[in-house]
Amino acid sequence: MQEILDTLANNSTWAYALLFVYSLGGGMVAILAAALLCASGALDIYLCVIIASVANFLGDEGLYYFAKFNRKQALPYFAKHRRKLALAQILFRRYGAWIILFKKYIYGLKTLVPIAIGFSKFNDIKFCVINAICAIIWALSLGLIGFFTGDLVNLISEKIGANNSLFLLALLAILGLIWLYFSKASKKSIKAKKGIKA
């Protein structure tokens, strides 16, 4: 474990770069993993939250403007996802800004909601402001969850000792459980909100 932390401490630029790239497309696992590393002192939690927020914001802005200015060219590529796009637009009309925040935690909706909003005639500045606020909330909430879970991970690491493979398995198990929880909770919430049986 210490070797991994030392490697990341010496090459933190790469860790931050990976966090940025991964957060462009969502990055839930990346921000959680980065926050866990912050608890060990390998990375800076403030910098991780800022990087994840900016990247998540830029990723959604890119999807929004791609859909807005390439509607005719983009629609054929989403023919198979027509129902999902329609659902995303219905959810957006019904819940407004809340769906922009909520979708950041749900795999699948992360990409479709900004595209669906881009296909609509939603105000650019309003989307930009809402998206910025939601990206900050998303990165801050997951960053804090990961950071405070870091104590548990450090405790597990100390108990396991020098066996890095067991530590990595434990770390992956914790990240997997967090992801599974968010995934199941969000699916139940979406089904309840849209009133459609899966």
Secondary structure: number of strands = 0
Major beta-sheet overview: none
Strand content: under 5%
Average pLDDT taken over every residue: 78
Structural overview:
- There is one protein chain.
- The mean pLDDT is 78.
- Helix 1 (2-10) crosses helix 2, helix 3 (28-39) crosses helix 9 (124-160) and helix 9 (124-160) runs antiparallel to helix 10.
- The chain has 10 helices and no strands.
- By secondary structure, the chain is mostly helical.
- It has helices at residues 2-10, 12-24, 28-39, 45-69, 71-74, 82-95, 97-102, 109-119, 124-160, 164-194.
Quick description:
By secondary structure, this protein is mostly helical. The protein has helices at residues 2-10, 12-24, 28-39, 45-69, 71-74, 82-95, 97-102, 109-119, 124-160, 164-194.
Notable traits:
198 residues, mainly alpha, elongated
Q: Topology of this structure?
A:
Elements: H1 2-10, H2 12-24, H3 28-39, H4 45-69, H5 71-74, H6 82-95, H7 97-102, H8 109-119, H9 124-160, H10 164-194
Helix pairs in contact: 1-2, 2-3, 2-4, 3-4, 3-9, 4-8, 4-9, 6-8, 9-10
